[in-house]
Amino acid sequence: MDLDMIRIALPNKGGLYQPCIDLLKSCGYKVKKPTKGLFYRDSQNEVEFYFLRASDIPMYLSKGIIDLGVTGDDFHREKASTAKKVLDLPFGHSKLCIAAMQDSGFQSKEDLFGLRVATSFPNIVRDYFRDDQMEIVELDGAVEISISLGLSDCVVDIVETGATLKSAGLKIISEPIFTSNASLYSVSEPRNKKGIDKVVNRISGRLIALDYQLVEYDAPVNILDDACNLTPGIESPTICQLRDDNWCSVKSMVKRDEAHTILDNLQALGCKAILLTNIEMARI
């Protein structure tokens, strides 16, 4: 193992796998899951990728075996990992919910005290209920079938759309006990902070680029202040005098979810040649 390389753990399957690959490729990394083994080296960028179970990644981080890892906040919490969250990622959103049979009559968590709960997240469940009489049945998967098999009275499981629970004849009880998304975590005591920071800055730059767009337009000098108030940018907009002294060219970053409203307002104000483009990468 090359100690100069930054070791990054990625989920080897499931809903987090492909978004991780897409994100890292957009940051300039050469990454793919090998047909044999669980390791891939990007020598040019001095990074080694390890494809592991998402639920195991917090343990590898806590022991300092890897430098960075992408996993769900639920797995991080369940394993009581000492890793440090450095970035929230825009995928892997889920909820940890209590569910029981449709005809069970259970309405709240108080109805479940002293009963049997099947889950893959025993520590989160234990912390939530704080019920010494509750029997927690720990399962690695297929939690929803445990009730019909007589193993539990209810379950606590990850819910994305709720389709799996519904197909098993279950209903969700009360609010989610934990909400989660994918995050980038760092080892708490980095051996190569400079290398870790380089990776984090690339990913952070890509996330900024996904959150913003670039607007460019020509504005008459007499409305320039009003136009700039609509597009203040990160620090301030870039303004260039055009050949015609009555006009300026303006360039600014705007929030993606506000971009089209801003374009409408710029046009109504009297701006011309309004352009909106995507940003591939950003550092601010």
From TrEMBL:
Record-linked Gene3D superfamilies: 3.30.70.120, Periplasmic binding protein-like II
Histidine biosynthesis HisG C-terminal domain: from which residue to which, for each copy? 210-280
**InterPro entries per the record?**
ATP-PRT_HisG_long (IPR020621), ATP_PRibTrfase_cat (IPR013820), ATP_PRibTrfase_CS (IPR018198), ATP_PRibTrfase_HisG (IPR001348), HisG_C (IPR013115), N-reg_PII-like_a/b (IPR011322), N-reg_PII/ATP_PRibTrfase_C (IPR015867)
This entry's Enzyme Commission designation comes to 2.4.2.17
Major location (coarse): cytoplasm
Keyword list, A-Z: Amino-acid biosynthesis, ATP-binding, Cytoplasm, Glycosyltransferase, Histidine biosynthesis, Magnesium, Metal-binding, Nucleotide-binding, Transferase
| Activity control, per UniProt | Feedback inhibited by histidine.
Q: Which cofactor does it need?
A: Mg(2+)
What is the uppermost EC class here?
Answer: transferase
> What is the name attached to this protein's record?
ATP phosphoribosyltransferase
This protein's gene is called hisG
Protein's UniProt keywords contain Amino-acid biosynthesis = yes
Q: Name one GO biological process term.
A: L-histidine biosynthetic process
Q: Where does this polypeptide localize?
A: Cytoplasm
